[in-house]
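Same chain as my last thread, 82 residues:
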Amino acid sequence: MTAVSKETQQAHDGFADFLHSLAEGSATQQDWRRHAISHNADAALETARMELIKVSQTDSRMPTDSAKVRDAASEIIRRLAI
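reply #2:
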């Protein structure tokens, strides 16, 4: 088993919390800016971040108000089992 640095674990946990709040409709624009704009060292999380951004660009609403983005966050949570 590979040891994960404390910073990496904190980033993973923070992004997971963001995904859950986004899926529940409770994420704020500040949350979006903090997590959607910041790149992730973890390849799976970076792919998820890019997926959310891509989905958000297909909707005229703010990303945190978009049902498409909420659905994408729910799918990512399921797929990554977080």
